[in-house]
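Sequence in, structure out.
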Amino acid sequence: MATNEVFEYAREAANDDVRATLDWLVANGFVLERTAGGPDAGFGDVVVELARGGAETVTIVRDRSQWTCDIQPDGMNTQPLDVLLAAMTGDQRALDPAPWPLEEPLPGQWPPGVAWRDAVPALLEWLSSGPRAADVNAAADQWRLARKKYWQDRLGEA
């Protein structure tokens, strides 16, 4: 399937917020770099990667009907939206490894309760407004530690 066809499939399969985010990215200078999946992929999974100026990359993924968003700021590692939101806001609740009961179906968009159409533009503005590597790296470290502790506690390991 051609790249543009996969992108159009992603737009059609997306909920309103994800679709608005994709449209905002294109309207603000992001160009399609890579796609994978599509309607014939397992579960209708899709990957859409958009980049602007070779400096910023946004990757939107639909995996088994759940949408996620990762951003790679200029010169930094790719990070999930919840890590970047924690770095920007200082709100460590975004790093909670289990904000959703495992018995419940996962929400259709991660992180739950976050409007990407607002969060992604705000994050991209914040990331480009000054040096942010220390904040992002600290939030990523906290994210990893929280997940490690969660699984150690859950599995009963010391």
